[in-house]
Design brief:
By secondary structure, this protein is of the alpha+beta class. Helix 10 links the parallel strand 19 (344-348) and strand 20 (373-375). It has a 7-stranded mixed sheet with strand order 3-9-10-16-13-12-11. A 5-stranded mixed sheet has the order 20-19-21-22-23, with helices on both faces. It contains 13 helices and 23 strands. Bound molecules: adenosine-5'-triphosphate (ATP). Residues 180, 182, 191-192, 195, 197, 264, 266-267, 305-307, 309-310 line the site of adenosine-5'-triphosphate (ATP).
Length: 445
């Protein structure tokens, strides 16, 4: 993990938030390449979940909802973690994650392992961030930052049903920030207090719920494999009844082998009719499906939920590689070309050669109309290649002496380091095709 954190910082993917003030726990800011990679992940998710389907609509609900939403959903009463305090070192830990926590003493041990450790009984701590709406602070103005995007979908169920004229099975997909006052911070992008969720609620006939649940587990698993994650590092894990959330009748996690061990990347839950029933009872609005022939029922819901941040971390871990090339170490991010922040670099071999620079810049102007590409004429060509390798750029086009003679360029492949020559005029189409091709990591499993 240290290598990933250091590369992310060095190359401007991710910075600790408000760093000049000492940071704020488990909160990160994304720099240029981080933003580009996140945009790609969001677009790829949206393309598969919405654009390429007939049974899906999009939504963008507010972050601050009427607080009664969170009473009905069970979050005010039950979205808690059990916490213990140590009376000796005055630190606070998650009671169910003591084996992941570090005691305040040195050398560090887990809380409870020193004879002086004096832990309190566990107390429930609500993870929702509170705020106030309007000018007056008081009970009546209390509100919450959403801890998940899903509830914004449930409270809009009727709107979508009526206006988008949908009939189960259909889904509503939404991407947006969620907030949780996480108590076991650390582990970089894996557990943040502010993260970007991508959730989809799929409404089905009650008797079909089990079948759709299995369908979505498989769909989501395949999505990661198609984007090049190593199958040896991805697995499905069914929750035991005791682990499941209050709303869920079945949950399967897709787990990735992060440096911290196998951990939840995405969760797929069968939420039954819990949410629609709760909101019907609390709001009085009947959240049910009524067919033209008068049939009426409360649909059951299947939910795949994930954050872009956890996906990006999995992709970075899976992609990170070091190898020796020509007696020098090379660090390379073997990202799927569609996930890579920059698709191609355009490099004049000799930065002082005005003809090469002209040709390179005009190729750059042409390519950037369709793709995120970079022009770079700073430093020796080897260093420029290595810079691109570290941010995962899959292709580099180099303009050299031969270009000036015959209008061809070299294309260098990030993974194999193979080079071939292409006509300058065909580069744009070549790049478009290359980005469409299936890709598999050359890393051994
Ligand atoms: P965990 O058990 O790891 O706390 P969870 O079961 O509470 O996760 P869910 O409520 O199922 O997580 O959230 C759905 C998805 O949102 C997770 O699979 C994960 O991808 C993402 N997610 C949840 N909490 C965080 C967080 N603090 N930082 C980044 N992503 C998160």
């Amino acid at each position: 993990m240290d290598k990933i954190v250091s590369l992310c910082r060095r190359r401007g993917f991710v910075f600790p938030s408000s760093e000049i003030y000492g940071g704020i726990g488990s909160t990160y800011d994304y720099g240029h390449y981080g933003v580009l990679a996140k945009n790609n992940i969001r677009e790829l998710w949206f393309q598969t979940m919405v654009q390429e389907r007939d049974d899906m609509v999009a939504l963008d609900s507010a972050i601050i909802l009427n607080p009664r939403v969170w009473e009905a959903s069970g979050h005010v009463g039950g979205f808690t973690d059990p916490l213990v305090d140590c009376r000796t070192c005055k630190l606070r830990f998650r009671a169910d994650k003591l084996d992941e926590a570090q005691c305040g003493r040195r050398p560090s041990k887990h809380p409870g392992e020193y004879s002086e450790c004096d832990l309190t009984e566990a107390r429930q701590f609500n993870l929702m961030f509170q705020t106030h709406v309007g000018a007056l602070e008081g009970e009546s103005s209390l509100a919450y930052l959403r801890p998940e995007t899903a509830q914004g979908i449930f409270v809009n169920f009727k709107n979508v049903l009526q206006i988008a004229r949908r009939k189960p099975p259909f889904g509503i997909a939404q991407v947006g920030k969620s907030f949780r006052n996480e108590i076991t911070p650390g582990n970089f992008l894996f557990r943040m207090r502010e993260f970007e969720q991508m959730e989809m609620e799929y409404f089905v006939l009650p008797q079909d719920a089990e079948q759709w649940f299995q369908y979505w587990v498989e769909e989501r698993f395949r999505w990661y494999l198609n984007l090049g994650l190593r199958e040896s590092h991805l697995r499905k894990r069914e929750h035991e009844a005791s682990e499941r959330s209050h709303y869920s009748s079945a949950t399967t996690d897709l787990e990735y082998l992060y440096p911290i061990g196998w951990s939840e990347l995405e969760g797929i839950a069968n939420r039954g009719d819990y949410d629609l029933t709760q909101h019907t009872q609390h709001s009085g609005a009947k959240l049910e499906f009524v067919g033209e022939d008068g049939e009426r029922y409360t649909p059951h819901v299947i939910e795949p939920a994930v954050s872009i941040d956890r996906i990006l971390l999995a992709f970075l871990v899976d992609a990170y590689d070091e190898e020796i090339v020509a007696e020098r170490q090379r660090t390379v991010l073997r990202l799927h070309p569609r996930v890579a922040p920059v698709k191609a670099a355009i490099l004049p071999l000799i930065a002082k050669n005005a003809d090469m620079v002209d040709r390179a810049r005009s190729l750059y102007q042409e390519l950037r109309k369709g793709q995120i590409v970079e022009y770079d004429d700073g430093g020796a060509i080897g260093r420029r290649y290595r810079r691109q390798d570290e941010i995962g750029t899959p292709f580099a086009f180099t303009i050299d002496d031969q270009t000036l003679e015959d209008d061809t360029v070299t294309v260098r492949d990030r993974d194999s380091l193979a080079q071939e020559r292409l006509p300058l005029a065909g580069v744009r189409n070549w790049l478009g095709d290359a980005l469409e091709r299936p890709w598999q990591t050359p890393k051994p499993s």
